[in-house]
Amino acid sequence: MSKQSINEQPKVGEWIPCSERLPEKTGYYLVQLSRKLPNEDYSDRVVVLYNGEDKEFMAYERLIVAWMPLPESYKKKGA
User: Fold this and answer.
1) What is the mean pLDDT of residues 37-48?
2) Judging by DSSP bridges, how do beta strands 45-51 and 64-69 pair with one another?
3) What is the CA radius of gyration of the chain?
4) Are 66 and 50 within 8 A, CB to CB?
5) DSSP string for residues in 33-75
6) How far is residue 78's CA from residue 65's CA, in Å, rounded to a whole number?
7) Are strands 64-69 and 27-33 parallel, antiparallel or unpaired?
8) Tens digit of pLDDT for each residue in 1-18?
9) If DSSP codes are grouped into helix, strand and coil, which group holds residue 26?
10) Residue range 44-70, pLDDT digits in tens
11) Which of 13, 51, 54, 79 is least surrounded, with the fewest CB atoms within 10 Å of its CB?
């Protein structure tokens, strides 16, 4: 498996392993956790804020194994 160039922007729907690289910008990202959170359905994937300045996720940092950008917000057609 080849590593992505740091200049390549990941596409929505493409998981990036944390072992390869972390996001470059501060923002919210969908992350995959190494295990489910207790008492939650589908809680092995959550949205977490990433601090680009400190280069760290603001929650679940030890559980995050991969990340991807969020899709753009829904916009009503014709609005």
Assistant:
1) 82
2) unpaired
3) 14
4) no
5) ESSPPTT-TTTTEEEEEEETTTTEESS-TTTEEEEEEPPPPP-
6) 39
7) antiparallel
8) 344 555 566 666 799 999
9) coil
10) 899 999 999 999 999 999 999 999 999
11) 79
